[in-house]
Amino acid sequence: MHCRTSTVPNPDSKLRIYNTLTKTKEDFQPLNPPQVGIYLCGPTVYAESHIGHMVGPVIFDTIKRYLRYSGYEPTWVVNITDVDDKLINKSRERGLPVSQIATEMTADYLANLRELGVNQIDYMPRATDHMANIIAFIENLVDKGFAYAVEGDVFFDVAKDSSYGQLSNRNVDDQQGEGGGAAAKKRSAGDFALWKSAKPGEISWDSPWGKGRPGWHIECSAMSREILGETFDIHGGGLDLMFPHHENELAQSSCCHGKPMVKYWMHNGLMRAGAKGKVGGKSDRESTPEEEAEGKISRSKGAGGLSTLIRRHTGTRIRFFLLRTHYRSTILFNEEGLEEAGVALEGFYRLFDRFEEISKLSFYDDSLKPARTRKDGEFDPGDDALLKQVDEFRGKFITAMDDDLNTGLGVSVLFDWLRTMNRYLDESKLGPGADVTSTEVQSLIVAMRKMKELTNILGLFTKVPASGGGDEAAQELLDKTVHLLIDLRKEARERKDYATGDAIRNRLTEIGISLLDKKEGTTWETS
């Protein structure tokens, strides 16, 4: 990333971030303001995404929005791990090339991000596109004595890094490296693989150590350096990645470059099944990182594909659900919590409908022309009682976000704001046919413009609400109808009537439904 040196763009900003490395909240002072480099560990694309995969992207999508609102110029990178043991195993299981599975599951991941309004990612590098950089990185570590090669494998020697364990507060003895045949090659149990020699029939690349593929940890070190530089501002991910993944990334990069890899390490809490929390409330947590990792939602815990959940509840509802608590809190997931989130959102939708009837302006598009930065959003409420309250709400929201990006408290402020707006409309007796030039309506428009300014930061209410989440019978009917068409298409293709099969697919695409042909059958998702 090309960086330039300048003064902090907003000297009034009081943003503080909890740094996992120092275990304290620190004033946010980027390396090269106004630019900010952010790297978030993305998925290993071997199966469909589940809701746990959306926690980090939704949080960091919001963080980027707030940084830009605060006058910074953030660049956000999310990697795709498209070569890995899990992908190789899935390739054998499905009888398909690794590349085909990775492409298919990346498409699924991107579709889910789109539904949840995650659209702020600048770069999404794939490991297989950075193989030359990865190999060069490993060669550098070998040349400097931090890594060693044994029979086609290359390992990082954790004993050579005196700072190893600084992120997770663990020592070398706590590290658990790869088992199996690799264990016998290592100098110590804690050493981890940088390069793995290929077994017969496995996907592989040529390297100075023979055919093989990279280890998981080295991929992120190489890709983050290539795009953001040897040292960058923020590295994010779930608490379950802090050890060993982020610890090993930190060791590789700091030893290779002789300087810190990252200034601020940010770890979001994990999602686990449990009792529902209060929408608009504060933290649902306190638990240790180990407890969170133990209870987190994952495929091994039975989590399935996300597209069905989105059809049932809508992407906006799921995004709102994920932002209603502080990002470092555990998210307690269950269907009741999502239903409750939907009920809460309906209150905002009713306000927006009332507002449009009165002002003839939509809250969902750019009709209100909200401010894009906190500086541009500053205003003088004068003696207007409503706007004085609005100015207070805006200040509370920004204070919450400045305090370690507390979206949970920010959402609470929006609920207070919602109640105030409804009370104002009732007391002012404003309704359809009101004089839009009146003082009351003009104050209403300013108040809603300020609300839009802040909901944009959360990525909420950016489009007219989608149907779903509340009419399960309709959703079930839609699912049955689409599967009936899938069966008809299958029958047409079996009798070589490809024109009819293609027509069914094309007509479904026209109404926003995409068919996904897989070895085990055809599924569908909204597009």
Task: Indicate the overall shape.
Answer: flat
The ordered H/E elements are EEEHEHHHEEEEHEHEEHHHEHHHHHHHEE
Helix content: 40-55%
Q: Give the percentage of residues in beta strands.
A: 5-15%
Query: Number of helix segments?
Result: 16
**Average pLDDT score:** 88
Please tell me how large the radius of gyration is: 25 Å
Characteristics:
44% helix, alpha/beta, four-stranded antiparallel sheet, Cysteine--tRNA ligase, nucleotide-binding, Cys-tRNA-synt_Ia_DALR, 14 strands, 16 helices, cysteine-tRNA ligase activity, four-stranded parallel sheet, single chain, 527 residues, metal-binding
Note the topology.
Elements: E1 16-19, E2 24-27, E3 35-40, H1 55-69, E4 73-78, H2 85-94, H3 98-115, H4 131-143, E5 147-150, E6 153-156, E7 192-197, E8 212-214, H5 216-228, E9 232-238, H6 242-257, E10 262-268, E11 271-273, H7 289-295, H8 307-313, H9 315-323, E12 331-333, H10 335-359, H11 374-377, H12 385-402, H13 407-428, H14 439-458, H15 472-494, H16 498-510, E13 513-518, E14 521-526
Parallel strand pairs: 3-4, 3-9, 9-10, 11-12
Antiparallel strand pairs: 1-2, 5-6, 6-7, 7-8, 13-14
Main location: cytoplasm
Binding site for Zn(2+): 41, 220, 245, 249
Domain Cysteinyl-tRNA synthetase class Ia DALR: 396-478
